[in-house]
């Protein structure tokens, strides 16, 4: 049976995911403004949950757009 490899987070240790940190949140959003799935970001489960909460809070407070319209 193969050993399960330990996953490493792309975030530096001690990095807090907060709704005020817009530059960090934008790294985990697509061009259209949707949240990138965990399998693509390689975040830990807890970090992904914190990320989703922070993005939703930032959207409600008007710091991030809910969606970005396609340009024609």
UniProtKB/TrEMBL annotation:
GO terms for cellular component: ribonucleoprotein complex; ribosome. The keyword Transcription regulation does not apply. Keywords: Plastid, Ribonucleoprotein, Ribosomal protein. SUPFAM superfamilies: Ribosomal protein S18 (SSF46911). GO terms for molecular function: small ribosomal subunit rRNA binding; structural constituent of ribosome. One of its GO terms (biological process) is translation. It holds the Pfam family Ribosomal_S18. Belongs to the bacterial ribosomal protein bS18 family. This is Ribosomal protein S18. It comes from Olisthodiscus luteus (Marine phytoflagellate). The lineage of its organism: Eukaryota, Sar, Stramenopiles, Ochrophyta, Olisthodiscophyceae.
